[in-house]
Amino acid sequence: MVPVALFWFRRDLRLHDNAGLCAALRSGLPIVPVFIFDPKILSSLDADDRRVSFIYSALEALQEQLVAAGTTLQVLHDEPLKAFATLCGRYHVAAVYTNEDYEPYARQRDAAVAAELGRQGIAFLSFQDQVLQAPGAVQKEGGGYYQVYTPFYRRWQALLTDACLKPHPSEQLAGAFHREPVGTWPSLAQLGFRKNPVHAVSPCLPAETLLRSYHDTRNLPAIAGTTRLGVHLRFGTVSIRALARQALDTSETFLKELAWREFFMQLLAQEPRLVSESFRKEYDAIDWRQDEEAFGRWCAGTTGYPLVDAGMRELQATGFMHNRVRMVTASFLVKHLLIDWRRGEAHFARLLLDFDLSSNNGNWQWVAGCGCDAAPYFRVFNPQLQAARFDPDGAYVRQWVPEWGTSAYPNPIVDHKKAVARCVAVYKKALAREQLALFP
């Protein structure tokens, strides 16, 4: 058999400006494109998970382009090590190219795959693609990673050279794909999933007018003032480099949002324990309430706080929630209801189409006050004041809570002032107890 290289698509489901794919296509070997549905990941998802439908649709769009280039995407449903054993039996594989993934499981998976391929004399080559600065690249002057966003951002921005923003013209190298007829894929049903309508914008750069007004409109949930590109960044159907170049020309506020994403990525890469632990370990001593009724009402959007309920219902219906409202709903669960932030994080992880482990974890810890760059524990969002400021005419609330203002709408589940006082007291007690344990 003629030697080939495999390109393993993961969080980079596009042919254009794809760093690893570009390197593969320049290798001189015919490139076989591959995607693997990993049962370890799929087994934790609901049968109607929107993300699987999104990925499947993105792969179908990718396949159209690959067929036009004379090749086909090899789609396997298997554990990665077994999938590569299958592929190595099917082709004479000389190398595997891919783009880096920084989540804890992904790093373990890639290390195992690289080791097994290495035993067979097959090179495993990975490239930076989903970020502008890889975890570990933005260091303090004396070494070590940043634990506060603002100095991280200043250093991150200073490192945005032309080299890291330069596109990789992978779309111009389509002639280097391995030529073969269209193959068959496992269906969604065979993967164990049902098709779920996905509410997502197309994977294209945002309008310049949107970005120029982004600073003023991004906090208003009733209007289309955000890019809605979170899911496309998550699965790489847009180029982070193209977005950053556009942001540099139009909106530093949007550029800062891209930096927040990378701040949380580097944090999780440095501290994988954060998947289940607070960055500030003393906050794990908080006596969280085990109130299933309250948690259920928060999930269902029946707390009696209109902005909170609107956000939770939007999430349930669409897989999306406006960023400002995410902060308010998360703060309400943790501070008003005193329910462990990890339960809220898991609920968002189950429903968010744009779920990203590091951002979801980082933002929940920020709200709870237990993260490295967190709001102080005594800062509690007032949902009523937030609604008055960011949804003053109630347009967003009315869209998702049509019974608001009628007798059908429930009374508030908790009193705001009493809930805040309880929150502060419980936090203080836990932190004082931890301090006493450290310095008896």
TrEMBL record:
Coiled-coil features, chain-numbered ranges: none
Signal keyword on record: no
Listed cofactors: FAD; (6R)-5,10-methylene-5,6,7,8-tetrahydrofolate
Matching Gene3D superfamilies: 1.25.40.80, DNA Cyclobutane Dipyrimidine Photolyase, subunit A, domain 3 (1.10.579.10), HUPs (3.40.50.620)
Domain Photolyase/cryptochrome alpha/beta: 3-132
Alphabetical UniProt keywords: Chromophore, FAD, Flavoprotein
Keyword 4Fe-4S: no
Family recorded in the similarity comment: Belongs to the DNA photolyase family.
Protein name: Deoxyribodipyrimidine photo-lyase
Species whose genome carries this gene: Flaviaesturariibacter amylovorans
